[in-house]
Automatic annotation (TrEMBL):
The keyword Signal applies. Keywords: Cell outer membrane, Membrane, Signal. Its main location: membrane. It is found in: Cell outer membrane. Belongs to the Omp25/RopB family. InterPro entries: Beta-barrel_OMP (IPR027385), OMP-like (IPR051692), OMP/PagP_B-barrel (IPR011250). Residues 11-250 form the Outer membrane protein beta-barrel domain. This is Porin family protein.
Length: 257
């Protein structure tokens, strides 16, 4: 009977001591709040896309005929259209700043090599008759743009715009009254670009984006030379380019989630 009483007292004492002992144990660290992704910081990356250009070229027929026959022989104006298209491969580097609290502003420089190329034929009525092959090619496309966007945590919807430059080449080749010719013109043309896209940060430092851009370069006079026949002339070129591309960026010093 006494043993049973002692056992009950011991159990009761342990029950009383349990909460006190638990109070002396170290508390488990509180799990920190999961922060939102921050777009503030700089980044660099690469891009791949497709491009389509519209180039109106005026007047390749006059260029050829008046070069051989003398100024004033060609009557009227001939404008031909080439539609170069191809692949763009390039890279970009930029910086963003997020504020208030979901708006994002930034600046980006981008450069791409291009395979855009297109051609068309134009009649040479004074050549008994002959035709000329008119080719247009864009080798490089660069831009410096500002962008503004709205962030839904790690998803950024943005618009962009700024200055652009295209490195172009034009060729007019063929035969006029039995004499082969080959005119070439090179130019770096400046203009503007505007577009927009969607960027998704899928890890702390990596993001992917989908973007559309429109490039407008107006019209300029391009000097054309034929070194074989020692001929010189010019054409007027009006052009714009549309680009759809995807990109992958690495964010330097990003805060992440």
């Amino acid at each position: 009977m006494e043993k049973l009483l002692l056992a009950n007292l011991a159990a009761f004492a342990m029950m009383l001591a349990g909460p006190a002992m638990a109070a002396d144990l170290p508390l488990k660290a509180e799990v920190p709040f999961v922060a939102r992704f921050s777009w503030t910081g700089c980044y660099l990356g690469g891009s791949l896309g497709g491009a389509f250009a519209h180039k109106d070229i005026t007047d390749p027929a006059q260029l050829v005929q008046d070069s051989f026959l003398g100024a004033g022989n060609t009557v009227g104006v001939t404008t031909v259209n080439t539609t170069p298209h191809g692949v763009l491969i390039g890279g970009q580097i930029g910086c963003d700043y997020q504020f208030a609290p979901s708006w994002v502003v930034g600046i980006e420089g981008a450069a791409s090599g291009s395979t855009m190329k297109g051609s068309t034929n134009v009649a040479l009525p004074l050549g008994n008759p002959d035709t000329a092959l008119v080719q247009a090619k864009t080798d490089f496309l660069t831009s410096v743009t500002a962008r503004i966007g709205y962030a839904f945590d790690n998803l950024l919807l943005y618009a962009r715009g700024g200055a652009a430059m295209a490195a172009d080449r034009y060729d007019v080749t063929g035969s006029f009254a039995g004499t082969p010719f080959g005119f070439t013109g090179l130019e770096n043309r400046f203009g503007w670009t505007a577009g927009g896209g969607l960027e998704w940060a899928f890890t702390q430092h990596w993001s992917a984006n989908f973007e559309y851009d429109y490039y407008q370069f107006g019209h300029r006079t391009v000097t054309m030379t034929d070194p074989t026949n020692v001929l010189l002339g010019s054409v007027d070129v009006r052009q714009n380019i549309q680009v759809v591309k995807v990109g992958l960026n690495f964010h330097i010093g990003a805060n992440g989630w």
